[in-house]
Design a protein that fits this description.
Number of helices: 6
Order of helices and strands: EHHEHEHEHEEH
Number of strands: 6
Pfam family, one: NYN
GO molecular function: RNA nuclease activity
Strand order of the largest sheet: 3-2-1-4-5-6
CATH superfamily: 5'-nuclease
Length: 200
């Protein structure tokens, strides 16, 4: 770890972040398009609140992408949102195609491979020397193995983030690793309310 400024990378499990924001801060039945956040604002908020001086290297966002043939409107909105976020060279969006069940649309499409992609990248970048600190923003315990690996790396520190009141990733029976709890005021400060269904 650097003796001067920590190089920070934020890893966002986006569907998880979006879903918990809706559950914690929006009324029941709110439109599915609500509850989005700007990844760069999240990254800047998290890096700015650390006790050590920190430089935000990158926010890596992991999410599914609808099939344009099955969900043309949703796919176009997803593409426009991705393009908006990636106007900053500090934001990288990693998308994997949604998987559609045979009885779609009676059953919903689902994300596949997102957890694996996050875990692989956390470990890969932790070993590479690219970052001093990884912050995982997710409430999904399935990502704990990646946190455990980084926890043992002397060259890379690991922290987590969650919305206030949401489940947080931690080692059983402890408050480790350090968790950044973001409240409703934080959510409002980073909220993405742009309507991506509108063509520019």
């Amino acid at each position: 770890m650097s003796d001067t400024v920590d190089r920070v990378v934020v890893f966002m499990d986006y569907q998880n972040v979006h879903g918990w924001a809706r559950r914690q801060f929006l009324p029941f039945g709110a439109d599915p398009s609500e509850g989005h956040v700007f990844p760069l604002k999240i990254g800047e908020l998290l890096a700015g609140r650390r006790r050590r001086e920190s430089e935000l290297m990158e926010v890596r966002v992991y999410r599914g992408r609808p099939n344009p043939e099955r969900q043309p409107g949703a796919a176009a909105a997803n593409d426009r949102q991705t393009a908006m976020w990636e106007r900053s060279d500090q934001v990288t969006v990693i998308r994997r195609n949604l998987q559609y069940p045979s009885d779609y649309p009676a059953s919903r499409a689902s994300e596949k491979g997102i957890d694996v992609a996050i875990a692989v990248d956390m470990i890969r970048l932790g070993m590479s020397g690219y970052m001093d600190t990884a912050i995982l923003f997710s409430s999904d315990n399935d990502l704990m193995p990646a946190v455990e690996v980084l926890w043992t790396m002397p060259q890379c520190h690991v922290e987590v983030a969650s919305w206030s009141g949401a489940h947080r990733v931690r080692f059983p029976g402890t408050q480790q690793p350090w968790c950044h709890h973001l409240n409703e005021s934080d959510f409002q400060a980073v909220r993405d309310t742009y309507d991506y269904s509108i063509h520019e």
